[in-house]
Amino acid sequence: MDTVWQHTTVLLNEAVDALITTQDGHYIDATFGRGGHSRLILSRLGAQGSLTAFDKDTEAMAEAQTISDSRFAIRHEAFSAISDLPARSAQGVLMDLGISSPQIDNPARGFSFRGDGPLDMRMDTTRGQSVAQWLETAQETHIEEVIRDYGEERFARAIAKAIVTRRQERGPVRTTLELASLVAGAVKTREPGQNPATRTFQAFRIFINAELEELERALEASLELLAPGGRLVVISFHSLEDRIVKQFIARHAREEVDRRSPAWMLSKAPAMKLEALGRTKPSEVEVKANPRARSAVMRVAQRTEVGAQGGM
Question: What is the CATH number of domain 124-208?
Fold first, then answer.
């Protein structure tokens, strides 16, 4: 009998409340996951509303097939592929970053050190290198750089050296528990209650899926995709993601338009910018019910006009 992996959507109502400004708009769930946000969005939309979702995880795609709603469409693509959609066609874009509980809990996916499994970590298992395949040939300096930059791990050098030494002496690391054991032997101290391998696993997952690059591309695409008054809602789960989102919103919220420039005066469309609408964290009640929500941060911004159409 197949195991059914459960997932609890973080900031479910808060995200959908922030996202929807009209029942008849077109909305984007850029990270479908197990569909918690998508199902609630659909329940809030009117007959003329619609939702397009994206996910590159094949298990997420299978879950999406259980939704029989003519207003819903799913695309098996990374969330940066929202750039393919028409400009100003969406009333809202939702991005729920990171990984879902079923991905973490299923040892076969290789995301966690809680159970032994193949060292994979790919969101889309149909393409690209697994972490194990990458570690077969990766240079020690590159491994160190990935662990340091994406895991913010101060023992990155020692961990990278241990991985390469193991590869030279006994062959490459293949499983999650092998990697966790290597990291534990290289890390001298760790915060109370945190597994020594936590930061390394995060770093390898982010790297192998190009998560931060995907996020940057998706954010830029959302700026073109959102209609005036449309909302951008992003839920992050670690500081690297949240920093990118925060800086993106701040950069475009303070963007100025030079009305004296020929480009502005000749433009057929009004110039636009983002307005930051706030930051939300899960309540104590939610964190108690779902401890994985504790690090979540939701940021909301709105697409607004900054100038009327110019002319000569």
Answer: 1.10.150.170
